[in-house]
């Protein structure tokens, strides 16, 4: 069942509450250091009050099934994490986060394995055909990083073990350098949920033209750009899993990372599309992920 509009708005509002609070705190700086200090103290008092109340609620519930339901609600889980009350350890939370994004990884022909967690570092191994496609690889790296950061904010670094025999470690900063260099940011797009099976929609998100479509129950998003003819995909047709460019009639598999189905070898540039705190969100980069550096 789709989320009701008022529920989506509520989730979206609280997801950005931290940013709004920080903006208000920054604004108090104009009143001088003393005003800023009092504002910060007020926020601390409110946070501690609600933390103590939440702790008492968890104690009074005394029902593992209910506590488990609280832990699986994105908004409540984020508060439990802030106050150190989440019932699952970091390994369980990271494992669950990877399970949630695994179907999305599979649509890009890839997968990820959790090797271990040492102190505040997660060690992963990516596998599958996505490793040979820079666009898909960057998309999956960003998706996995976001899932882990949300589930386990205490994680400070992510290391990826190469599938090569030497199993060299790749620092997360190096792995995600291309993602960060493009200025990627998550934007809420609940309107995409309105697309019907087989329907294509064009959207502009933070100045970026996006082509979204639904195949069955799954939504997919790509940059509105045909790599074969270098034109917009506006007016494209979708036949089951095959997208046809209206200009050059090139064909792409939208379910499998936009892989080209013709001899030109081109592929669409996918954009991560995930439900974050129950709200559909796009990770929109300033330029297509497949663009040359």
UniProtKB/TrEMBL annotation:
A GO molecular-function descriptor: iron ion binding
PANTHER family the UniProt entry points to: IRON-SULFUR CLUSTER SCAFFOLD PROTEIN NFU-RELATED (PTHR11178)
Stretch forming the signal peptide: none
Descriptive protein name: Rieske domain-containing protein
Pfam families to which the protein is assigned, alphabetical: NifU, Rieske
Known function: May be involved in the formation or repair of [Fe-S] clusters present in iron-sulfur proteins.
Keyword annotations: 2Fe-2S, Iron, Iron-sulfur, Metal-binding
SUPFAM superfamilies: Fe-S cluster assembly (FSCA) domain-like, ISP domain
Positions of the Rieske domain: 187-282
A biological-process GO annotation: iron-sulfur cluster assembly
